[in-house]
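Protein modeling request. Please complete all fields; requests missing the sequence field cannot be processed.
Requester role: graduate student
Desired output: 3D structure, token encoding
Chains: 1
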Amino acid sequence: MNQPLRQSFSSGADIVAANLVRLRSLAPMLPPNRQKKVLRDMSGSHSSALRGRGMDFAEVRQYQAGDDLRSMDWRVTARTGQAHIKVFNEEKERPVLLVCDLRAGMQFGSRRALKKVLAADLTALLAWAALHNGDRIGALLFNDAQELDLRPKPGRKSVLHLLNELTRLPATSATPQPDRLAQMLRHLRRVARPGSRIYITSDWAGYDHECQQHLFSISRHCDVIALHISDPLEQQLPPPGLYPLTDGQRRLLLDTASVSARQTYQQAFQQQLQQLREQLLQLQIPLLALSTADPDPLPALRAGLGLGAAVSLPEVV
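Delivered output (317 residues):
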């Protein structure tokens, strides 16, 4: 009798379409309509609920007692001399935008998977979850030289198209651009519709003041959730010794014998991550830290989205 196989996230150096498709079975474990920001625990008074679905403008009508003053149409009010408000219809399908970083720095990994592989898995899983919730799915995929903008569309075909493009966007030998992340956030600022839910999966290399300004503008009208991908070798140096490293062209030896150097390295990573978390917290954007070494990132993902961490992967016979 065959033993049941347990569904798992991808491993290795390549983004494989079949693996991304299989993650559909986990979609019910990430219900978007139940996701909550956990800012109350993170920042005390800085708490806010996720916004509702996007709103489409319907009409302007005269003000009635109890109407929300924030919807006041001041131009029509001034022209007619009578108070008028804007009326909106709730969208049936909320736009979900999945931003996936595939730059050169994401082509790295020392354990079970490269950072880009985990990023693609998470993007695929969130796309399936959005489909399960009846939302429209769009994406912004980018490397150092190219980007692909997929506008939000409903249906399974939109998800499969996204998964296919995740496997097709090539690794690039282009010289990394220090402002590449800022470029993509500027683009995201232009295309994100108010009321969208946005997931940004990246190692956040190159995050600076310009990035903060773009995210400030985006987060005023959209719900943004940041996923930070790292590898254990970025978090701390391996045990003392000499380690050969290569990028496919060059080779070098990494000497980790120095205790002080190991401590400085680990502290630098933690300080950088904490600084990023605090900067995003100012914008009420939660940061979920995930590692390539974790064979099952789902509990950490659920906990970060306010869904609770107690979950086990389903068995697939």
